[in-house]
Amino acid sequence: MSATGENSTITGKKIFFNFIEVPYEKLSESGDVIRRLKNGELHGFVLKNLFSKQEIADILKALEKPMEEKAMVTPSGKMFPAPFAIITNSGERLDAYYESMNTVHELMDREPALKMVPERLAHFFKLIGQDYKVSVPINKIKGIPVSEGCFRVFYKDRGGLFVHCGNLFQQQSEYYYSLLANDIDMSDQLSFFFNLQNTEVGGELTIYDMLWKDVVGKASPEENDSVIDANGNTIYLKDVEQFTVKPQPGDILVFSGGPIWHRVENIKGDTPRITYGGFVNFSNDGKEIFYWS
Ligand SMILES: O=C(O)CCC(=O)C(=O)O
After folding, report:
1. Per the domain annotation, does 77 fall within a domain?
2. For residue 80, which of 146, 14, 152 has the smallest C-alpha distance?
3. What is the pLDDT of residues 7-35, one digit of tens each?
4. pLDDT tens digit sequence for 87-139
5. Which residues line ligand 1 (CB under 6 A)?
6. Which atom of ligand 1 sits closest to the CA of residue 273?
7. Does 67 map to a domain?
8. What does the alpha-carbon distance between residue 4 and residue 287 come to, in Å, rounded to a whole number?
9. Ligand 1 pocket mutation, candidates 74, 165, 205, criterion most atoms within 8 A of CB
10. Ligand 1 atom 5: residue of nearest CA
11. Taking burial as the number of CB atoms within 10 A of a residue's CB, which of 13, 39, 199, 241 is the most buried?
12. What is the Cα–Cα distance from 71 to 80, expressed in whole angstroms?
């Protein structure tokens, strides 16, 4: 069901990974999606219309003021709650991470449109997790779960989200990952996000034909035109085969963002791009699924 037409979610000359798009009504026919993503049978899974247009409008309205007043400002936009990347590898800012998460949870408790976000997400993971136990990992120090997801806003001409893969992020946030009490499989985490708002032009997720096993770094975190392979060679992104994925508002995407290099293109329209996302993986014994941000 991969699509290559102009108005499709998945667009490119060649869709070299197995990214599929599934209508909500066909979800029950998609099988054990997380397992299929992990074993390489699938690389990306877009489920259409996890949220209705009205639900998305309600969530956006409820988010407006808190995003203005309480979200963390980043070079390319805003994040709410603050991502785990703020926690340093010597443990600073763990409290700030939790304060920001608590602010989001308090808002969710007061505002049904926002409460719907983690509830629907849990429902989604239970549906695609089939027989597995699904939960948010516990932080060892705090004895409570970490955040289940994060609202991400990208503004015009601030660069989008620079080329990366989840395995690189994981390496950069060793301390945070070491605090997860559960026995999570730390290799090749998956990424998920659902789309709340697209910009008019730009903001696509570009998927590169490059895997973590071959491409292991960048010259600096801000580098967005090239990466470095395992032999130390610089590879320019313009020379790498690529395709784009642009889920519509209400759609959710889960993909192999741990090993596959990708980036969010610069936002070119006045309307900011807004998503809610995080990461997901199995436990080491393969019996449970965890998701976090
Ligand atoms: O939330 C987004 O739009 C970007 C997702 C992403 O790049 C990731 O999960 O690694």
Report:
1. yes
2. 152
3. 469 999 999 999 999 999 999 899 899 99
4. 999 999 999 999 999 999 999 999 999 999 999 999 999 999 878 999 999 99
5. 152, 161, 166, 191, 193, 257, 262, 264, 275, 277
6. 3
7. yes
8. 35
9. 205
10. 193
11. 199
12. 5
Which ligand 1 atom lies nearest to the CA of residue 154?
A: 3
Average pLDDT over all residues of the chain: 95
Copy the structure tokens of residue 258: 């741990």
Total number of domains constituting the chain: 1
* Number of other CB atoms surrounding residue 180 within 10 Å: 18
Atom 7, ligand 1: residue with shortest CA distance: 263
Q: Tell me if 158 is assigned to some domain.
A: yes
Q: What is the CATH number of the domain that holds 174?
A: 2.60.120.620
- Which pLDDT value is given to residue 7? 46
Non-local CB neighbours of 254 within 8 Å, separated by 6+ positions:
33, 34, 37, 44, 45, 128, 190, 191, 192, 280
Best residue among 262, 274, 281 to mutate for probing ligand 1, ranked by most atoms within 8 Å of CB? 262
